[in-house]
Amino acid sequence: MNARILYIASNTFREAVRDRVLYNLIAFAVLLSAAAIFIGQISIEIERLVVVNLGLTAVSLFGVVIAIFIGIGLVSKEIEKRTLYTVLSRPVRRWEFIVGKFFGLAGTLVVNTFFMGVGVFAALLYVAHKFSGPDAWILVALYFIVLQFLIICSLALLFSSFSSPLLSAIFAFSLFVIGSFSDDLRGFAYLTRGFAHWIATAAAYMVPNFSVLNVISSVAHQQAISSQLILQNTLYALFYSAMALSGAVLIFERRNLK
Amino acid sequence: MAAIEILGLEKSYMVGFWRKRPKRALQPLHLTVEEGEIFGFLGPNGAGKTTTLKMLMGLVFPTAGTARILGKEWTDPEVKAQIGFLPEQPYFYDYLTAHELLDYYGQLSGVPGKERKQRVEEVLQRVGLTDIKGVQLRKFSKGMLQRAGIAQAILHNPKLVFFDEPMSGLDPLGRREVRDLMEQLKHEGKTVFFSTHILSDAEALCDRVAIIHKGELRGVGAIEELTSSVQGKVEVIWKGTQAPASMKALGAECHVTGDTVRAVIPENQQDAAIDALRREHLRLIAITPLRTSLEAYFVEKLQHSQTTAGTAK
Predict the structure, then answer these.
(1) Residue B313: predicted pLDDT
(2) CATH number, residue B152
(3) Furthest CA-CA distance within chain B
(4) CA-based, 20 to 30 A from B187: which of A26, A90, A142, A235?
């Protein structure tokens, strides 16, 4: 990787850590520990199912909130506080700045997800007393959650390159919600006819397909995930993030920093 | 070789919500700054100084025109490795310490690792920021931030330094130190381009100045050249209860307050006034420059533009 991108990424990571973003891990740990103890007492035979479902959903939601709320400020905060002036007056290209910021936030989320994943496995061990073979699929679910974060980070960056933080947050969160129901949107497109069909189909393919990246329920039921799906999802997330990031770069390259 | 050649840079912004119309922030600007000089870019607030600097830094895109810096196109990334920039009222990543901030900027400017650590210590010492190890920038005063800003601008040993209002936020001692630093940079062979609206700073430092007002260049040249046609004013105060005739003969307007007399006279009459007071055996208390010749020139240029605008209406 280009060294300047790496420096910008590591500074972004450092900012997140010093802004106490990783403190969310404490809230997560408290939530999961309490849930594990509580579920261990009331559930019979389904403790594992409940802990995996609850744990992975919490990983996903905590991460999405962080991705959106840090992502939307990554560019706008630097413009507003004018810290960008002393960065871009150096031999740093604008696209390097955007890509560096993206990797910095993605790195933060990967580290965050890693610790939360450890928490999920610890809670699972607490309620089930041992690991079984299919528990390895939890790692795939965590990987898919990270892929979701990549898409959300790139979308947050895209929105923050041209709109205010509040609007960016609304756009990004709306897309997350719509994207989580993208299968339903596709189903709706299938049912419609004529102009509405074209509009619904276009919308269904434009919004990120988070449904396909959500395998929490499957892994909670100890179902295997096919390697084909892993490959498809990886390519899909990389392609979508690259497109959104390219859009952010194109807009930012032309922006006057008043 | 010229350090900076500005070739017709101009900037218009679109204003208005429904019916957008262009508002010109900078008229086509032509300006050359020679290597090794301290060049002052003067003008009142909102004159277009910061817009010009931002265009040269690639932060704002010009509507038309181009520029060359150190003989190359100003957009060339290689050029940026050789320039330093201090923005107006700088604000930095407040979660970093000054050492971390400078290390980060050093990385971005391509300063090698071993040299970087040494350079960081050197520049911090140079701008008078000592005993700040481990202190995050959020705890810095305005003056300390300004010093950190100057440090980051000279960290990578640039050939050309741009300072936007470098004295802003500094106390008198700090301003003196920055002036000394700028003179040192000149002696090291660097070119310094700085914008200010504090004329005494420009007068004390600059080889040449340019005056800009309402986005238009009003004058450019060495201070002596520009001010040859205008006179500054000095205030003379002496002990006494009335103004002697010899002082009035110099064209002084005298005001008596208690047992002191105050007179304002043209700068070139200063020696004659001292002689007159000596002859009358009056005790001189103070002579203070009221308006330097550069200030007089500056005001004249600004008033001229207002008169022209008034006539045009």
Answers:
(1) 46
(2) 3.40.50.300
(3) 72
(4) A90
Q: Which of B61, B87, B105 sits opposite A90 (nearest CB)?
A: B105
- Whether B94 has a pLDDT exceeding 70, the answer reads yes
pLDDT tens per residue across span A75-105: 888 888 889 999 999 999 999 999 999 999 9
Could you give the number of structural domains in chain B?
Answer: 2
- pLDDT (average), residues B105-133: 92
A86 → chain B, closest CA residue: B85
Element (H, E) at A152: helix A137-160
Residue matched to tokens 């071993």: B114
CATH number (domain holding residue B246): 3.30.70
Q: Do A89 and B58 touch (CB under 8 A)?
A: yes
* Tens digit of each residue's pLDDT (9 = 90 or more) over B174-199: 888 889 999 999 999 999 999 988 88
At which of B227, B251, B267 does a domain end?
B227
Contacts of A82 in chain B (CB under 8 A): 87, 89-91
Q: What is the pLDDT averaged over residues A15-22?
A: 82
Q: How far apart are CA A114 and CA A118, in angstroms?
A: 6
Contact A86 B60 (CB under 8 A): no
Q: Which residue of A has its CA nearest to B151?
A: A86
A86 → closest Cβ in B90, B95, B107? B90
Residue B78 buriedness (CB in 10 A; 0-12 / 13-18 / 19+): exposed
Please report which confidence band the pLDDT of residue B143 belongs to, taking 50, 70 and 90 as the band edges. confident
B96 shares contact with chain A (CB less than 8 Å) = yes
Residue B286 is inside which H or E element, if any? strand B284-291
Residue B296 within a domain: no
Q: Are residues B18 and B150 in the same domain?
A: yes
Q: Under an 8 A CB cutoff, do B92 and A91 touch?
A: no
Assess if residue A258 is contained within a domain.
no
**Residue A129, in any domain of the structure:** yes
* A83 within some domain: yes
Structural domain harbouring A196: 3-253
Is B178 in the same domain as B252?
Answer: no
- B267 within a domain of the structure (yes/no): yes
Ordered strands of the B2-15 beta sheet: B21-34, B2-15, B64-69, B72-73
Based on the structure, what is the number of domains in chain A? 1
Domain extent for B50: 2-227
Residues B146 and B266 in one domain: no
Residue B271 and residue B279 in contact, taking contact as beta carbons nearer than 8 Å: no
Q: Is A92 near chain B, with CB under 8 Å?
A: yes
Give the C-alpha distances (Å, rounded to integers) separating A138 from A42, A63, A131.
Answer: 23, 16, 11
Closest chain B residue to A16 measured between Cα atoms? Answer: B95
